[in-house]
């Protein structure tokens, strides 16, 4: 049908066959959206204008006397209502005047802006400040986390005086990160991101101080406890990306999230290279050589905590929840019902356990949130298993430590350096499409790494693509998880996702060694490729459900 208001088809749309206005009740949500731009004071004069200048209006079809409803002879109305002008009322004028009349009955709370609240000037200002503060904290805190990744195993070997205990440091750190994912989320649920993230970095700083004490006293229990607490810093770094998405507008959510992920690049590059400066600090403080790097790490972690506590104001999650509650009240006044997940969260009460149970139910009931959950867990598991065994495989084939270090650096570059590009891509083509692209990158990486046992170039390329596939999956999956989850449930769902991600990745890294000794590095990459298939199958189900 032509939508031009002067086309004859408008007569059929606005009026019945007898020229009587159709009774259409506008929904409250329709009033809310339209009255963001128009008011009854604007609509009424516009309708009168259509009545005054209606000389060329189309004729209305008359109904046949037999009642068949087929158009008969064309006739024009010769009389006006209540002594009006000659001619008939234009259908557009009737619609405008009727709507102006109905608008008077719309209550004041329904007169809200049709644009998302994230586009308000104050919210945009707070969002920019939030991303800057999170990026700064991620840089200084990431340096401390990077120290443990490269030097933690050496410290464990030095304290225990045994090579068999070298892997204990990495295991304890991973276990610590997995154990505090949900507790950090629950603190954020009740106190906000500022309290959660600053407390997480502070606990990690205490762990760094314990590691320095363990190096001095050569205490293995103290080292294990210190590494467990140090793992809290890793979990805090991972949850910082969600804080960047709390106030982000939906079209830019992945981009905001990716900036915080990109900031980790600085820590991952500088942290492993603090052994030299740490030795200088240790010499000045008369500490063991490896303890100096953890002194610098402790300072960085404490600085990250202070930055977030002092400058992450207003709290992004609390501000998001306030806007969400205001929007919910306006929708309730308009007569619309809340989403089932949000209603469940209210029914559970304010307790942490109730919110967590509601979040887990949301993961089971929302297909897109479940898809994002599976994507993040699988991506982290595939990345951790292959990355852990790549240096071992390269060393077995005679590759020098320098090339091994360059390969790992390229892998970290793929993980973090291109995150802003991935975020823009995800916002442009969609989160779902970006996740699928990441799985394709994983498959290419597995093929190149599996066939590149004797080729350093293929191994470097495969590991770089492994990091890039992880970046595609994590950035797009995290943005999708935030978008598919109501604001009151986000902290619990996000914390559960990170906990599952770290636990499954730890199991995968532990099984990677026996698998490689059994089926080789090529077989390990084949298993990694098989792990990607459930994500692709889940994607096919979502596409078919559309």
TrEMBL record:
What are the subcellular locations of this protein? Cell membrane
Superkingdom of the organism of origin: Bacteria
GO cellular component term, pick one: plasma membrane
Which regions span the lipid bilayer? 133-156, 168-187, 199-216, 222-244, 256-275, 290-312, 369-387, 399-418, 430-450, 456-479, 500-520, 526-545
Enumerate the spans annotated as Major facilitator superfamily (MFS) profile domain.
Answer: 130-546
Topology in the lipid bilayer is annotated as: Multi-pass membrane protein
The keyword Lyase appears for this protein: no
Instruction: Please tell me whether the keyword Cytoplasm is annotated for this protein.
Output: no
A Pfam family the protein falls into: MFS_1
Where is it chiefly localized?
membrane
Q: Where is this region: Disordered?
A: 63-84, 328-356
What are the record keywords, sorted?
Membrane, Transmembrane, Transmembrane helix
**Gene Ontology terms, MF aspect:** transmembrane transporter activity
Bias regions of kind Low complexity — which residues?
333-343
Protein name from the UniProt record: MFS transporter
Species, as recorded: Streptomyces reniochalinae
């Amino acid at each position: 049908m032509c939508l031009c208001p002067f086309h004859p088809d408008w007569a059929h749309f606005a009026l019945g066959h007898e020229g009587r206005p159709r009774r259409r009740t506008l929904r409250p949500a329709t009033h809310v959206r339209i009255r963001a731009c128009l008011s009854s004071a604007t609509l009424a004069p516009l309708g009168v204008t259509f009545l005054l200048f209606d000389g060329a209006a189309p004729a209305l079809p008359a109904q046949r006397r037999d009642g068949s409803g087929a158009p008969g002879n064309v006739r024009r109305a010769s009389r006006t209502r209540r002594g009006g002008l000659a001619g008939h009322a234009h259908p557009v004028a009737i619609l405008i005047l009727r709507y102006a009349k109905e608008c008077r009955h719309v209550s004041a709370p329904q007169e809200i802006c049709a644009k998302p609240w994230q586009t308000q000037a104050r919210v945009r200002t707070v969002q920019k400040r939030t991303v800057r503060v999170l990026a700064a904290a991620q840089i200084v805190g990431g340096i401390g986390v990077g120290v443990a990744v490269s030097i933690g195993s050496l410290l464990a070997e030095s304290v225990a005086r045994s090579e068999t205990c070298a892997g204990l440091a990495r295991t304890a750190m991973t276990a610590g990160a997995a154990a505090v994912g949900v507790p950090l989320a629950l603190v954020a649920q009740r106190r906000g991101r500022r309290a959660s993230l600053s407390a997480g970095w502070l606990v990690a700083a205490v762990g760094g101080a314990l590691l320095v004490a363990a190096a001095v006293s050569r205490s293995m229990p103290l080292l294990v406890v210190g590494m467990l607490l140090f793992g809290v810093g890793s979990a805090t770094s991972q949850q910082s990306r969600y804080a960047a998405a709390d106030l982000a507008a939906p079209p830019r959510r992945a981009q905001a999230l990716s900036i915080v992920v990109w900031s980790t690049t600085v820590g991952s590059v500088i942290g492993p290279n603090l052994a030299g400066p740490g030795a200088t600090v240790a010499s000045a403080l008369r500490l063991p050589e490896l303890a100096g790097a953890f002194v610098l790490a402790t300072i960085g972690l404490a600085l990250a905590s202070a930055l977030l506590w002092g400058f992450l104001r207003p709290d992004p999650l609390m501000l998001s929840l306030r806007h969400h509650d205001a929007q919910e009240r306006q929708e309730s006044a308009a007569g619309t019902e809340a989403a089932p997940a949000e209603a469940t969260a209210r029914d559970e009460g304010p307790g942490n356990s109730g919110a967590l149970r509601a979040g887990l139910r949301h993961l089971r009931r929302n297909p897109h949130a479940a898809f994002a959950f599976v994507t993040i867990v699988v991506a982290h598991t595939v990345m951790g298993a292959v990355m852990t065994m790549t240096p071992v495989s390269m060393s077995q084939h005679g590759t020098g430590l320098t090339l091994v270090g360059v390969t790992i650096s390229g892998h970290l570059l793929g993980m973090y350096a291109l995150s802003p590009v991935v975020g823009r891509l995800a916002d442009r083509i969609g989160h779902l499409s970006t996740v699928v692209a990441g799985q394709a990158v994983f498959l290419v990486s597995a093929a190149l790494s599996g066939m590149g046992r004797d080729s350093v170039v293929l191994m470097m390329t495969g590991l770089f693509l492994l990091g890039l596939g992880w970046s595609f999956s994590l950035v797009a999956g995290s943005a999708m998880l935030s978008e598919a989850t109501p604001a009151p449930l986000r902290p619990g769902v996000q914390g559960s996702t990170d906990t599952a991600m770290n636990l499954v990745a730890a199991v995968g890294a532990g099984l990677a060694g026996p698998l490689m000794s059994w089926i080789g590095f090529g077989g390990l990459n084949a298993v990694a490729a098989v792990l990607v298939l459930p994500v692709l199958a889940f994607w096919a189900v979502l596409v078919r459900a559309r």
